[in-house]
Amino acid sequence: MKKIIYLLIILSFFSFYSCNQNNDASLDVKDYENATKHFSKNLNKHLFNILNYQKWENEDFLYYDVKYEEKTESYQINLKTNEKSILKEKQSKSSPYSKRNRNEFLSPNGKLSAYIENYNLWVRNLSTNKKTQLTFDGKEDYGYATNNAGWTKSKGPVLKWSPKSDKIATFRQDARGVGEMYLTTTNVGHPILQAWKYALPGDDKIFEIERIIVDIKSNNIVRLKMKNDFQRSTTTDHIAGRGGELLDTQWNKDGSKLAFISSSRDHKEAHLQIADSKTGNVSSIFKENAETYYESGVRGENWEVLFDSDEYIWYSEKDNWGHLYLYDLKTKKLKNRITEGEWLVRKLMHIDTEKRELIFTAGGRENGNPYHVYLYKVNFDGTGLKCLTPEKGSHSISPSPNWNYFVTTYSTTSNPPVSILKNRNGEKITELSSSNSSELERNGWQKPIEFSVKARDNKTDLFGIMYIPSYYNENEKYPILNYIYPGPQSGSVGNYSFVVARRDFQALAELGFVIVSVDAMGTPGRSKSFHDVYYGNMGDNGLPDNITAIEQLSKKYKAMDLSRVGIWGHSGGGFASTAALLRYPDFYDVAVSSSGNHDNRNYEADWGEKWHGLLTRLDLNSSDGKIDSDSTKTNYDIQANQLLVENLKGKLLIAHGMLDDNVPPSNTMIVVDALIKANKDFDLLLFPNKRHGYGDLSNYMMRRKWDFFVKHLKGLDPPKNFSFNN
User: Would you say the C-alpha torsion 42, 710, 485, 464 has a positive or negative sign?
Assistant: First the structure.
């Protein structure tokens, strides 16, 4: 009897061991369920002692909440005495925006809201509900404050209120003659057609704006005396920021002057100008031209006109790094550099004109990961540069209204957040919260592996993160999964602060994969030359760097199986993952590509024309030495996935939402058409009535992705019809 029990124990052990090593002919429901334990929704509950709310009351009090294991406690700090006390009654978290309607833009004094009705701009008095029409000649495709960039649109207005809430800087969008995009619903009966203006690279007509200033009190419209601007900004592929704020515009204090930047269609030129709000006269201040594209910051704009001192601060990457420069507004000449070195300013956060001091975030100046964000201050003349947050990690900053104090919350990919209250000199006042990963680890959390390898040039340092199974064994072999988002406006990782789970990376690792994600050359946050690596060749997608990163990592982590490599991504990552299978068929074996912009001629004009350049016809050299132009060949051919389908050898799952109004489904269907004509086998997944994200079908897409990798990289049968919704 004892012998039988002993044999049963041995058999049970090997059965368990085999399941964890994924050596069976199939995976079962329990394997998938075990993997889902590594989702953020299942791990966040094990992260304690974290700051989850903070509010400043002028420069007098700081209110904040800390989440503990058993409860969330509310605190108050008297900033004059540094005395901390527990709050019995929680602070109200109401917002002034609660008074406005969804598609309205609130004025700085909180008394008015601006909105669009019948293509014209109106304001509403929030106290009396009185509505006043400001413009009267707006019409379809030629309306005021219109928020439509093709790839994104909103019913709310795009504008910039003056500080005194008495003027509005906005525009009349000229979309007349701009091409349209069409989508149809899937339903019983007649489908509903969705049509809207959506410019593409190479179009003769794209969105233009006629800049205007509206005087609320006099109801007077001042049209700026200048040509139409292309609808372009210096930081993104739209002119509307959060809430509809008009980007690249800045008022002086009394609203008599408006500074703004006009960008060329190809983003190569940025032109700083100042308009008189009464006359509409426009003065040229400064122009910068770049060989590729000009950007005024990593995420947000870093230029500022200092009207009171007749100066302006300009951001430039002209020396290969993003830095700040001080210019004289009258002479328009450079006074001095403010920052310099082989690192970059990320965000100009505060300008103290009295102390002539700037406070900004930057990356790459401190030792370690160049993507870690630190806070600095410096004098206008470039002296007195000081790091205010030397604690190792990436810092998120929340300042008091006048910047006498700030809270920094810092962390790394493996070290949970710590929050500290400091004064503006960076001196610590008190620690607000300090978390650790002990409870997470007791519940199965695995630390990601942050790595650094060399880029394709064998010189440049690349950074990324890797996830391995909790049962990783150097004597085993695990297929590799490469997550990719190529940018160029962001990278695959970008943020190296602490999160309990990044997407489904660790969950996939628990199924027996090694996950690799790397910030390749061609993405931001480093030097200008780093970012520009594949300008004019978006088909590059940073893939050479992803490949060399995986190869280098496999030399250290011997269990990585280079003979089985998969890749996946969404949107730009969908474009890149399909390109990986077609451009490097001997390295990548399987790809799952969702909602990809597979040929940027079918995606919005601002995107391709910034990162790839204006569309031009190719001149081909003929045999007699003459140059002929072939109208069917363009400089965009080099990036088009459908032109490479003959190279397909691996397994491809390609997906798209049929109501995707960001990346229209034609981007995927042209690849599908080419694959069919090339007699290639592939898997296609279409989501009727779904946008760029798949909403309530996102879990279905994730399950199909898991199944595809398990089947084609591990050679195992996945559990049938597993649901993440249970």
Answer: positive
CB-CB contact of 467 with 448 (8 Å): yes
Cα angle: 147, vertex 148, 150; to 5 degrees: 160
Tell me which residue has tokens 């430039």.
316
Contact 200/601 with Cβ under 8 angstroms?
yes
Tally: H helices and E strands in the chain: 11, 43
- Cβ of 175: how many Cβ atoms within 10 Å? 24
**The tokens 């203006």 sit on which residue?**
197
Tokens of 237: 């592929």
Which pLDDT tens digit goes with each residue over 30-52? 999 999 999 999 999 999 999 99
Rounded to whole angstroms, the Cα distance separating 656 from 692 reads 8
Give the SS3 label for residue 715. Answer: coil
* Cross-strand bridge partners of residue 76: 63, 85
Chain-centre distance for alpha carbon 225: 35
- Match 């403010």 to its residue by tokens: 338
Exposed / middle / buried, residue 682 (Cβ in 10 Å: 0-12, 13-18, 19+):
buried
In which element (H, E) is residue 702 found?
Answer: helix 698-713
Q: Is 150 helix (H, G, I), strand (E, B) or coil?
A: coil
Strand duo 120-125 + 344-352: pairing: unpaired
Nearest Cα to Cα of residue 376 among 337, 350, 409: 350
Token output for 633: 């060949």
Polymer length in residues for the chain: 726
Give the domains, in start order, of the chain with CATH numbers. Answer: 24-45+439-582+696-713 (3.40.50.1820)
Q: Are 410 and 417 in contact (CB under 8 A)?
A: yes
Token code pair at residue 547:
């490949």
Give the three-state DSSP class for 229: strand
Candidates 39, 22, 9, 13; CA nearest to 472 is: 22
Given a cut of 60, whether residue 91 has pLDDT beyond it is yes
| Torsion sign (Cα): 379, 384, 389, 393 | positive
Residue 237's nearest CA partner among 629, 652, 662 is 662
488 cis-preceded (ω within 30 degrees of 0): yes
Please give the DSSP secondary-structure letter assigned to residue 660: -
| 259-305 pLDDT tens trace | 999 999 999 999 999 999 999 999 999 999 999 999 999 989 999 99
- What is the rounded CA–CA span in Å between residue 716 and residue 667? 32
Query: If you average pLDDT over every residue of the chain, what do you get?
Result: 94
